[in-house]
């Protein structure tokens, strides 16, 4: 045909698409590219190794945990679902949990850019649990990094098929066509929408144009500011979270729990509770007694009327003070310092810390004889499915998990206790249930960032840093939530210490040239349930490093910023630090009781620096101003990234100055935000400026951001406090111990 390419498109029915006169039976174009040989896959190793220096690179600088996640997903990275409907909407199922970090919006931006679709008509929904993605986890700031290449390749492939379909319809060269706003456009002005072409494009097996993703420099949406697509729904209360899920016949359910950590039922009597208005059923479960009623109020009233005798928990008689002493005893000794060598040693202690996300843990379950349907906002849905299967006796292949949006997590939703409990109650009552944990339930019976102790020692001679040692002792972090699948499931269940060590060395980084550096971790099971908390090991280790480095600089008579610049071996961290130092006019004279503090962090192939100003002259310390600079390689949604850094500052302030959990005689002391002292509005700085460095180069790749900011923000706040008060905090939160 005149004007056509000399190549013939191969179609799925071995016929030329040009000969098809009726549309496909399919009403939309659907790509499910599992095992597709035509999908262009990118390397799972990103970033360059650090420049040569007197300090050898750590493993985390070469292969970090997000790399491990990408490697684990590599066999099925292309198992993604993109739909283009006849109504000309694009829908992508995201195999991750959007828990408030905004990744659904970020992927909508990426898809619209790569596919040339109309952003306003590009929708990202959260995928149900998929058995064909056996390791699929939301965590460690890896969502954008792990899916960057697969999603771009998927969209490039889809765009090529759409262009090919238009070329065959119009008998023109595919290379002469362009795409924009969900349409294919010919040089003569003819236009066909993606929706109009979807059926024909679905039949194209080999496109007539390359399927290579665009260079980053050609993106027009990525790297800009966009409001979250569901922002209006969130602020108007119409966003659907787990408890908003409408499942016919699902009845409100709550659980009576032991006062002790890990306590269990010895005996119980539910006669009075069962006779109360609205009560549908009372079910004993491993963690307590569940009550189902027609309303949550009726369920709570009946729960409180239960007569229960409790067995003591495994840590009855213990306190966090005794546990801190245990950590002191098990930590490995630091290397003695040689005579005539300058040195500094310090110990930092961090408390147990609840995740305290805004949306409480909850789940909806409908369990039948041989199947289970669960609605639960999970970071690790396949792990939760396995737990539900184990507890109910239903095969995991028959467990369906729907993933709603979540109102926060910080690592808590890596586990699925609420889903398992809901499934057990639903099975016992033979009806769907809507189970809610109260704030008190999760604060006293949930999971916590491990209690930790950091021992650090540095030595120097004649201005040169000779060594830097950091030994951390901590309550064992529970990784039995799917992360173990990144190596082997047996590695977690059989040798938990081995897996934790691998996680540790791939999650930490010390971006400084400090001579002979070493980091060691020793963990011990202390009986308090734990889970990864935002930034995992760096949340305590890097914070301690940055506070220690500030003190070391002063002892060695260096300016704190200048000392870091002399030793940093991360170019991204250096430029972030230089930026905030200039923006905040570092070193300027400030009134008595006020001071500036700085800190940096480099991890996830990203870097961040904070400079904060603090006032300690009032009844409690208060932030005045904050400056942040962040380099994530390719920032997708700039406003979302800025919001992440602002939120990280508030979280960092909270955990270092106000919030922490205590164990008293085997029980968690705190029960709500009334005694778990998170920051209030009065603690926010008057101004916060966040600078996001743009992508550089056509081959730039994204780093991680979700967990990046909190470590540097937390340390900068403490460093400002130390300079303002001429003290050196060692135990946190500051306002409890200082």
From TrEMBL:
Residues 236-314 form the Aldehyde oxidase/xanthine dehydrogenase a/b hammerhead domain. Keywords: Oxidoreductase. One of its GO terms (molecular function) is isoquinoline 1-oxidoreductase activity. InterPro entries: Ald_Oxase/Xan_DH_a/b (IPR000674), AldOxase/xan_DH_MoCoBD1 (IPR008274), AldOxase/xan_DH_MoCoBD2 (IPR046867), AldOxase/xan_DH_Mopterin-bd_sf (IPR037165), N-heterocyclic_Hydroxylase (IPR052516), OxRdtase_Mopterin-bd_su_IorB (IPR012368), TAT_signal (IPR006311). Signal peptide: none annotated. Pfam families: MoCoBD_1, MoCoBD_2. Its EC number is 1.3.99.16. SMART domains: Ald_Xan_dh_C. This is Isoquinoline 1-oxidoreductase beta subunit. It comes from Povalibacter uvarum.
